[in-house]
Amino acid sequence: MIHLLALLLALLALPALAHKPSDSYLGIDWAGDRISARWDIALRDLDNALTLDADGDGAITWGEVRTRHADIAALALQHLQISADGQACTATPGEQLVDDHTDGAYTVLPLALHCPPGARTLALRYTLFGDIDPSHRGLLRLTDAGGTRTAVLDPAGPAQGFEQAAGGRGSTFMQFLREGVWHIWIGFDHILFLLSLLLPAVMVWAGRRWQAVPRLRDAVIDVTQIVTAFTLAHSVTLSLATLGLVSLPSALVESAIAASVVLAALNNLWPLIQGRRWLVAFGFGLIHGFGFATVLADLQLPQDALVLALLAFNAGVELGQLAIVAVFLPLAFALRASVFYRRVVLQAGSTAIAALAALWFVERALSIEILGL
Question: How far apart are alpha carbons 372 and 364 in whole angstroms?
Answer without folding.
Answer: 13
